[in-house]
Amino acid sequence: MLFNSFAFLFLYLPVVLAGYFVLAKLRPRWAIAWLALASLWFYGYWDWRYLPLLMASISLNYWCAARMLASRNRSKQWLVPGLTANLALLGYYKYANFFMASVDTLLGAPLHDWHIVLPIGISFFTFTQIAFLVDCHRGLAGEYRFIHYALFVSYFPHLIAGPVLHHKEMMPQFERPPGLNAADVAVGLSIFVVGLAKKVLLADPLSPLVAPVFAAQAHPQLIEAWIGALAYTFQLYFDFSGYSDMAIGLSRLFGVQLPLNFNSPYQAGNIAEFWRRWHMSLSRFLRDYLYVPLGGNRHHRLRNLMLTMLLGGLWHGAGWTFVVWGGLHGVYLVLHRGWTAWAGMGLPRWWGRGLTFLAVVVAWVVFRAPDLSTAGDVLRGMAGANGLALPHGLAAYAPYFYRGAQFSGIRWIDFGGAGVLVLVLAMPLAFLAPNTQEIFRHYAPGAAAQRRLHLCWRPRKAWSLAFSLLFLGCLFSMNRISEFLYFQF
């Protein structure tokens, strides 16, 4: 079930909210159980056959954590089987097909294709529980009731596409007495509408600009390649940050604050800052549970950085394009550290932002492409190696263009649709506009705004009217329900 579907907005969510608030008033302990059951039902709605898998994962990890907490001096003997089980689960469902295909290519002989279906959200609930087990071993996690732990892992706002949750942020909130708070409801609904607008009004209209350019054998020319690459760059941002905003807003309805996941990443002045702003909960996980255990900044830090980014790329998907994408960002970060160490300072911000954005766009091309061959084709098009195609109507001005220009028309970009106009609007919004937490800085979850703005949300009639109209605009645009891009990761 998608957040941007009528079934979710007008059936599932009202029933879950009503049940939660009624039980919070009559039977507070039952309210948490109701929310956990509703979250499990939400997951099972996608494919009920994978619900036992989620329940088994929750039960096994809770049992391992309980054993570790009961035997502090021997916690490692429970940590290793727990981590092995989690990684084996993720490896089988997410990487078995990739491994078989790679061996097939290497040997040149067809092997049996297992056709394993990737359970939705498996990366998120597996990483969440790995962090919990590691912290139990470190003595940083306490004992929790099973119902609280089950809700922590399966909590429906985050379950499908994050953020990656941490127990120290969530468990104390689940242990608080549940109840209805009018301010939380108002803020939550408003943040949800912002996220829905990002998805429906900005991300979805960009999709028709992307798919034709990244199709096999498309050979996009200069203009087509750049429009396709930029369209995907902003489609992914508004799609994923829109989902994160919706998750934060939905959770706020229940009085629970989720961690922030985006902080205007395309406004970053360097690549390190980009990763402090993009998918922040995953960046935190990779730092705390991979980079630091590998040695962090203490020794072999460049190696640790490359390994972390390569594995972070592989986490996103089972394919060589994701490995190369992670490797590119590892190289970017190594070069950034080398420049900073050599020059003693970063690049000037005015062109550091431009260089960072260009590097990110190049990496997104590899990330989006179905294979490395297609990625190379699009990158060649962006460099002009596939030629320059211009509209037929400009043929009369041929002397003003360089000799290699062809007036054969633009093949893969539909200038008659809304996509190009939305792209023109999306760019300044991502580069210049305040983000969600800045707009809601007086009520925002988790982080203070970096800029003091006059445009700040308040519980006023004008804001209510504006968000009501925005919500109606989203409803009228939901004629074609589309999945979130990060569902596949």
| Count of domains | 2
- Strand tally, please? 2
The number of helices is 19
Structural class computed from helices and strand pairing: mainly alpha
How far apart lie the N and C ends? 17 Å
Strand content: under 5%
For the biggest β-sheet, the strand order reads 1-2
Low-pLDDT regions: none
Average pLDDT confidence is 88
Order of helices and strands: HHHHHHHHHHHHHHHHEEHHH
* Helix amount: 55-70%
Rg (C-alpha, Å): 24 Å
Major sheet size, sense and barrel closure? 2 strands, parallel
What is the global morphology?
Answer: globular
Keywords: Acyltransferase, Alginate biosynthesis, Cell membrane, Membrane, Transferase, Transmembrane, Transmembrane helix
Subcellular location: Cell membrane
Protein name: Probable alginate O-acetylase AlgI
Organism: Duganella vulcania
Quickly describe the structure.
This protein is mainly alpha-helical and 489 residues long.
How would you characterize this protein structure?
The chain is built from 19 helices and two strands. It has 489 residues and is mainly α. The chain has two domains: 6-180, no CATH class; 186-487, no CATH class. GO terms for molecular function: acyltransferase activity. The chain crosses the membrane at residues 6-23, 52-70, 77-96, 116-134, 146-166, 178-197, 307-330, 350-367, 379-400, 412-433, 462-481.
